[in-house]
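subagent[fold] <- orchestrator: predict structure for attached chain, return tokens only, no commentary.
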Amino acid sequence: MNAAQKKAMQYSNLINKTVQTIDEQQDTLNPEFETLRKHLDRDIIDRIDDVEYAKIRRDFDKGTKIYQDLLVKLQNGKAPARFMGTHISLVSAFKDYVDGCAKMTASIGEDKKVDRAMFNEAEKQQDEDMDKFSKQIQKLTQM
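subagent[fold] -> orchestrator:
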């Protein structure tokens, strides 16, 4: 295997591991997000069990840290020259997504105090940025 093939394989592994980790985190966090969303929409956030709410806060904090670690790995990833433009766009979209995750995590305060406006804004940001990220992943797989 020559150097270019080795670089391409390492980059492919980085992208695959990143997507796999994102999927795993979304599988973990989405049910908790849905719990918060349902309770916020009905204005009954105080009805979430104290232990469950604390777990949601911990899981969101942990998930955000995992996303931040992934971002650093992506930023440090060495894309083959022909993928460089797509890689830069991919990293940018993921950075914005991670910023949205951090914003959502910050909106989930102690004592069941959720900053509804920040939570809603973060949700919108995450949706938009994950769409951008997914489009870049599709471009990479088509190259």
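orchestrator: received. Logging for downstream: The first helix runs from residue 3 to 41. The CA atoms of residues 66 and 113 lie 24 Å apart.
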